[in-house]
Write a structure and sequence with these properties.
317 residues, alpha/beta, Spore Coat Polysaccharide Biosynthesis Protein SpsA, Chain A, 8-stranded mixed β-sheet, 18% strand, elongated, binds uridine-5'-diphosphate, binds magnesium ion
C-alpha cells in the first residue's frame, strides 16, 4: 500500500491545531488505498500548540511530532519535516487551513498520472491584505527578473512532491533554503494545480513583514548573482556621471560660464552620489558575504528538542 506523508509546520497555532489534524485525518481516511502519516513540526511555539499536539499524537501513532528548541522559521520547519518523510509521496501544507486538505485526493490523482510535483497555484487569495498582495506581486516580479530559474507566481509551499524529489531536496547541503525556488530548480515533471486560497481558519498570520523580508532576501540572494553585477552597472554609471561633471567644469573654466568659485554644490553632489553608490554596492556584497559566512559555519539549521512517534536522533541536522 502506498503511503502519503503530510508535512505541517506550526508556530503558535493553538487555535487551529485540532481542526487541522481533524480535517487532514478525515481526508486521509477517506482515501482507502493509501496509508498515511502526518508530521507536525512545532516551530518553537509559545502557546499550547505543543501540548495539544502531544495529546493528539499520543492517541494516534500516525501523527508524528517534531519540536524545535525555539522558533527557527517556516522554511526550517518544512525542511525538518521533509527529513522525516517515510511515505512514497509528501504533501506540504500550512496549518491554518488556507490550503484546503480536501484537495489532497485530487493532487494524489495527478501524481498517480505520472507527475512528480503537483504545486498549488492560487487562483484567488481570500482574506489577505492589499499590502500583502501588492508586496507579494512585486516580489515575484523582482525575483523572476533577477533569477535564473523560473519561479511561478502565486505559488506557495502547498504542494505534493514525489519521494525521490524529497530525497533530492534533503541531500541539498545549503542553509537558508528558499524551498519554492529549489523545487523549481530541481525540475522534474511538474503540474500547476489551481485552487482557491481560503482565509485563515483562525488566528493571525505568523508571517510579519520582517519574516517576509527575510524570505524575499533568501529567494533573491539564493537564486541570483545579478544584484552583485548591478554593483558594476552602478559603478559605470557613476563614473560616467563624474566625467560629465569634470567636462562641465573644464568647459566652464575655459569659456568662463557657470560659477566655479561657489562650486560647493557640485562637490557635495559628487561626494554624496559616489558614497551612496559605494554604500549600496557594499550592502549588496555584504548580503552575499553574510550568507557565505552562514554556510561556512556549518551550524545546524535547527535544533530538535523533542519528538513523538519519531525516533529522536537528538541531532540537529
Ligand atoms: N510558520 C512556522 N514558523 C514561523 C512562521 C510560520 O512554522 O516562524 C507556519 C505557520 O504556523 C503556518 C505556515 O507556517 O502553518 C504559514 O504561516 P502563515 O499562515 O502565518 O503565513 P501566511 O499564510 O500568512 O503567509
Ligand atoms: Mg496562512
Amino acid at each position: 500500500m502506498k503511503k502519503i506523508s503530510i508535512v505541517v509546520p506550526m508556530y503558535n497555532e493553538e487555535e487551529v491545531v485540532e481542526a487541522c489534524c481533524e480535517r487532514l485525518i478525515n481526508v486521509l481516511k477517506s482515501m482507502d488505498n493509501y496509508d498515511y502519516e502526518i508530521i507536525c513540526i512545532n516551530d518553537g511555539s509559545k502557546d499550547k500548540t505543543l501540548s495539544m499536539l502531544e495529546e493528539i499524537a499520543n492517541s494516534d501513532s500516525r501523527i508524528k511530532v517534531l519540536a524545535f528548541s525555539r522558533n527557527f522559521g517556516h522554511q526550517c520547519a518544512v525542511t525538518a519535516g521533509l527529513k522525516e518523510v517515510t511515505g512514497d509521496v509528501a504533501v506540504i501544507i500550512d496549518a491554518d487551513l488556507q490550503d484546503p486538505p480536501e484537495l489532497i485526493p485530487d493532487m494524489v490523482k495527478h501524481w498517480e498520472d505520472g507527475y512528480d510535483v503537483v504545486y498549488g497555484k492560487r487562483k484567488t487569495r481570500e482574506g489577505e491584505s492589499k499590502f500583502k498582495l501588492m508586496t507579494a506581486n512585486m516580489f515575484y516580479k523582482m525575483l523572476n527578473t533577477l533569477s535564473d530559474v523560473d519561479i511561478p507566481k502565486d505559488v506557495g509551499d502547498f504542494r505534493l512532491v514525489d519521494r525521490k524529489i524529497v530525497d533530492q531536496m534533503n541531500a541539498l547541503p545549503e542553509h537558508n533554503k528558499f524551498l519554492r525556488g529549489l523545487w523549481s530548480w530541481l525540475g522534474y515533471k511538474q503540474y500547476a494545480f489551481e485552487y482557491e486560497r481560503k482565509e485563515r481558519f483562525a488566528g493571525k498570520t505568523k508571517y510579519p513583514l520582517k519574516k517576509m523580508l527575510k524570505l524575499a532576501g533568501d529567494g533573491i540572494i539564493g537564486f541570483s548573482t545579478k544584484p552583485l553585477k548591478m554593483c558594476a552597472a552602478l559603478g559605470i554609471i557613476s563614473i560616467g556621471l563624474s566625467f560629465i561633471v569634470l567636462l562641465y567644469s573644464i568647459l566652464a573654466y575655459i569659456f568662463n560660464f557657470g560659477n566655479l568659485v561657489s562650486g560647493w554644490t557640485s562637490i557635495m553632489v559628487a561626494i554624496t552620489f559616489f558614497s551612496g553608490v559605494q554604500l549600496l554596492s557594499l550592502w549588496i556584497l555584504s548580503e552575499y558575504v553574510g550568507r557565505i559566512y552562514d554556510e561556512t559555519k556549518q551550524r545546524p539549521q535547527y535544533i530538535v528538542n523533542k519528538t513523538i512517534n519519531i525516533k529522536n536522533k537528538n541531532e540537529a541536522e
